[in-house]
Amino acid sequence: MSGLLGTVVDAAIGWLVQSILDSFFTERMEAWTREIGLAEDVEKLKFQMRYVQMVLAAAKGRSIDNMPLAQSLDDLRGLIYDSEDVMDELDYYRLEQQIIEGKGCSAPTGTNLEGSYVSSSTLSSVVKLVCSATSQITDWISHGRKRKREEEGLAHCNMLPLEIKDSISKRINVIVNLLCSNGNSVKGVLQLENLRTMATSSKSQNIARDHYMTTSVPIESKVYGRDAERDKIIDLLIKGGSSDLNVLPVVGSGGVGKTTLVRYVYHAKRIKDHFDLLIWVCVSTNFDVVGLTLQILDHVCEDRPYEKKSSLNKLQEILQENIRNKRFLLVMDDMWEEKDRSGWIKLLAPLKSNKVKGCMVLATTRTKSVAKMIGTMDEITLSGLDEKEFWLFFKACAFRNDNREHHPSLQSIGKQIAKALKGFPLALQSVGALLSTEVSYQHWTTVRDKRKSLQGYDDDILPILKLSYDYLPVYLQRCFSYCSLYPEDYGFDGKELVHAWISQNFVQCKDPTIRLEETGHGYLEKLVDLGFFQKDGSHYVMHDLMHVLAGMVSSNECATIDGLKSGAIRASVRHSSIIIADYDKDEHVSNSSEKFDKILQKGSWHKLRTLMLFGRSSIHLSGPLRTLCNEAKCLRLLSVTGADISSIYNSSNLFHLRYISAYRVSNPAFRQALTRCYHLQVLDVGISGNLDVPTDMNNLVNLRHLIAHEKVHHAIDCVSNMTSLQELKFKVQNVGSFEIGQLQSMNELVSLGVSQLENVKTKEEAWAAMLTHKEYLETMFLSWENSSMSLQPEAAEDVLDGLQPHQNLKTLEITGYGGAISPTWLSSAFSVTSLRILHLEECREWQILSTHGMHSLRKLTLIRMLNLMELSVLDLST
């Protein structure tokens, strides 16, 4: 059964289409396909994908209430993925040709642009476009375009072997035909409905998103554990008033009890005595200034003089007149929108005109960015209830009038359930209601063990959290749902997670001056801001309930095999993880491989894009894992840090790989095969591990991150070809292609270490690195060997002068420098304006140092600077 049945057509498939069009259907690809004789096929695929876009635009918001429509949409999604795979393979051959010819390539085909879903002024115009395109496509597919073969550049057809060219051509044409037939199926369903019905359906979807409306009327018989927060807020509202309108934000995750707390405040006697007028407005996801003004007027005016008024100006005049000389408290519950501050300013305009001292706005939001935008006072951050109060609340919900609350076994299992709910009152209300239906040890144990299945209950917290998810833009939805692959309570490394997202083309950016990693980090911080992740020291964590939500919304495309547990694996799955902790415990159980084989047989893996292994790999599983990897020919990400990758992965499946994490690579032939992963962006062999660097490592022209021991970095010949690298530890050598000029074209570097600088003899040699052109470079380490005494101080000074970095540099460490004076750029007021950290060590001849030009400097470290006689430092505290 299709996982889409019962949902609505959303922007996700359209976003996927646009991202593929932006990434692969570029002028560069168009020119190359003309050379090899595939331009007509690629153009047909492009045209057909545009057609699918128009169909999906017409269907957006439509309820998927019948199986044929659901199945057709499922098939369309699969075909879009197939289109991406075939174009990615074609791009692989393009890269291979460029590398063989020695041209190199500094970036993957296309620029990752933030795909915008096809839009139109009216729904009918989209449908007309769909209908008008159909006949053209049908004619194209049936009869073909009569282009002269000369335009296809027959002279260049030998660039791609004939059998490969024919195979790709056939695959493209099969996909084109299927896209056409499935697109027509969806269009056929659409034509059964008139446009008005479809528009109403779209509108009803928006209403559905706002269905969770709140009111000021108390629905709790008792509020647990919020007295301190209530009293603090009341004090701030009463004592913090001024002649200006102040706004106090309350921030917290969905279900943590923000609305309950604000109701508690709203009905407090001190509040009622202090304010002349109390107003409650539920904002939700649609920040409509007119609608919100009408809600406020409902509280302010008894005779409803505004009923027949539609002008915002007139409504605000009525509001202004009716609040004059009244001290009011306005509660704005469940605020979401932070994109447009102008709407917020417009809403408050008539309220600010009231000259009574002490008027206040109390707003709740899940989003820190909203709190920052609207707040004039420090926000109140709400967390889950403390353990003691939460247990009292648990007993009230779960036992109700039952007198067995002191039963030891029920208390024990109850406390386990309560602990898992992490202090979230809304989750407890749902689970407590379920527990109270049968107060028995057996029932409660079942609830504990099957807590994840609670998502089916209407009153559960997950529908509330799902509302947050639905509000996310498509690219954040994809990033969040992908995280269901990781184990519960996993500590995410932010950089690793962003790299994984990039490998799947989830991260997209219109601005070519902004790195994808920066954009991806912005995505992660936005998910933190919205409560989907929490920051825990240097790592990120996901609340258990959020992990359940991620699993629920990703079930069509993501699957986790957890130990020996067997579950259904949908045919549509593209990403999978295997948690093998259970196998570790049973390492010597001979039938573990057989059990694992049976689990794998339940799934179809040939279109898998992600495979992650968590846990120490058992030798008994290498056979099944090898079978799985041989079948998975579309992998973008492969993480097998606990296994020897060369024993399980077929080195012929290299077309699509973007991310490899493998700490054991024992087979030399496999290491050599890695150099043909032309799309590879991340190679992680562990910073403590050593990899015998194969020849032609510099073929990895798209490699952005090489996570390995510095010896691996040092051993790469002709590293200048790897212009996408962002971190490099480079050792200057007098043999082969290891001169410092290799750095000249590596302008994507963010972190650079250069050692053995005694092998650079002149300023001109140093200038060849062109460090001033590396605008993304933030961290730089420069070192000379201490044992090198042959280099004259004047020569060292010239070399360091020639290593002037871009002014964006933030951290600089210099070790073993033999000169007596600072380089001119270090003391200049305009050269290192962004430098925050300066570390100088064992620069034994350095005599004078001034930091007056380093206005951003915050940390200065000097170690064994034996001849330093003059130090001039700015006040770092300013």
UniProtKB/TrEMBL annotation:
Domain NB-ARC: 228-402
Matches recorded under Gene3D superfamilies: 1.20.5.4130, Helical domain of apoptotic protease-activating factors, P-loop containing nucleotide triphosphate hydrolases, Ribonuclease Inhibitor, Winged helix-like DNA-binding domain superfamily/Winged helix DNA-binding domain
Entry's Gene Ontology molecular function annotations: ADP binding
Residues of the Disease resistance N-terminal domain: 17-102
Transmembrane parts of this sequence: none
Alphabetized UniProt keyword annotations: Leucine-rich repeat, Nucleotide-binding, Plant defense, Repeat
GO biological process: defense response; response to other organism
Top-level taxon of the source organism: Eukaryota
Pfam families: LRR_R13L1-DRL21, NB-ARC, Rx_N, WHD_DRP
Domain spans labelled R13L1/DRL21-like LRR repeat region: 740-865
Domain called Disease resistance protein winged helix: residue spans: 485-550
UniProt family annotation: Belongs to the disease resistance NB-LRR family.
Name of the protein in question: NBS-LRR resistance protein S11A11
Native source species: Triticum aestivum
Lineage: Eukaryota, Viridiplantae, Streptophyta, Embryophyta, Tracheophyta
